[in-house]
Write a structure and sequence with these properties.
Distance between the termini: 45 Å
Shape: globular
Helix content: 40-55%
CATH topology: Rossmann fold
CATH superfamily: Alpha/Beta hydrolase fold, catalytic domain
Number of domains: 1
Number of helices: 12
CATH architecture: 3-Layer(aba) Sandwich
Number of strands: 8
Strand order of the largest sheet: 1-2-4-3-5-6-7-8
């Protein structure tokens, strides 16, 4: 039972089964007024959720931004922050920020003025822009020591690198991508199709999330890892648990974040030139990918890392996108070493 529940929570990108509220930093909010998106549309009464960990030093030189993954919240990041963890809050002032569409920050599910489908479509770049505004206006932080994030969080880090190249000293995108491959687009489109196909049905939201649960489960780990950890006899219980968890999510929140990821392309601001994009990056960069990732293809990250001539850590375990299950120690060691290297 315990192993089934763990894998089910993993599919929700709660990578370490982080359901416990013990020791969590307090959820905070910044009210930013009307926020203009890159499309020209406006999020009315924009609200951004965030949590802080540790202490900002006198020079304000130890701030680290930690972005959230797909359908994740800052509550999910709590167990990755602290002494001996992915980012050490006894050394760094860690700012975890909730992304648009996660149900905490402004989202289709919680907007009073633009509810549901009326909520404007945002981009990964918009997520980054509002984080920058949060830092500057609310927290009075004009420079970051580092930015890091996992999965969709890693996608935001690639965007940070080109949108605000002088704003941080270091950038650590983890299993993210600067641009989706055709396979990635197929994976996300399948989930969008499930949502749209069931939108007008009486039980549409639940049915849509049942299909999304199956698609996410299919790709989150490698086939061999999944088969060795979930028995045929336990499959029904596993899938039921995943479906139950995903049905708690709002379908519009999920769809809006998927569309944001699908439209990500950090090269478009440079006319599609990868060389010019790489030339604009000023931060020291550590790129971390999973060799057997079936959700975020590692090739685009590796290609940009090569152009940047930066260090790349390739996680080769059999866990696919679930890097903590097989490569957690290697991942933590790489991030710690890079952050501590001046």
């Amino acid at each position: 039972m315990k192993s089934y529940n763990r894998v089910a929570s993993i599919v929700l990108f709660a990578l370490l089964a982080m359901q416990s509220a013990k020791g969590q930093s307090v959820q905070k909010f910044a009210e930013l007024g009307d926020f203009r998106l890159e499309s020209g549309e406006i999020i009315r009464e924009c609200r951004i959720g965030y949590r802080t960990f540790g202490e900002l030093n006198h020079e304000k030189s130890n701030a680290v931004l930690f972005t959230t993954w797909f359908i994740g919240t800052t509550a999910d990041l709590v167990d990755l922050i602290g002494p001996g963890k992915l980012v050490d809050s006894s050394k760094y002032f860690v700012i975890a920020v909730d992304a648009f569409g996660n149900g905490v920050s402004s989202s289709p599910s919680n907007s009073k003025l633009q509810p549901g489908p009326k909520f404007p479509q945002f981009s990964i770049r918009d997520m980054v822009n509002v984080q920058h505004e949060l830092l500057m206006r609310e927290l009075k932080i004009k420079h970051l020591y580092a930015v890091t994030g996992i999965s969709m969080g890693g996608m935001q880090i690639f965007q940070w690198m080109v949108s605000y190249p002088e704003f941080m000293d270091k950038a650590i995108p983890i299993i993210g991508t600067p641009r989706q491959t055709s396979y990635d687009l197929l994976f996300w489109q399948a989930q969008l199709n499930a949502i749209e196909a069931n939108r007008n049905c009486e039980t549409g939201e639940n049915r849509a999330m049942q299909v999304v649960a199956a698609i996410l489960s299919l790709a989150f780990q490698t086939p061999s890892y999944f088969a060795s950890h979930i028995t045929p006899e336990g499959f029904g219980q596993f899938l039921a648990e995943v479906e139950k968890n995903l049905m708690r999510l709002n379908v519009n929140d999920v769809a809006w974040q998927i569309k944001a990821m699908m439209n990500l392309d950090v090269y478009k601001s440079f006319g599609g030139s990868k060389e010019q994009t790489a030339g604009a990056v000023r931060a020291r960069v550590l790129v971390i990918v999973s060799q057997q990732d079936h959700i975020v293809n590692p090739a685009p990250s590796q290609e940009l890392a090569k152009l940047l001539k930066v260090e790349t850590v390739i996680l080769s375990g059999d866990c696919g996108h679930d890097v903590f299950a097989c490569d957690g120690d290697k991942l933590r060691a790489a991030v710690t070493q890079f952050l501590n290297k001046y």
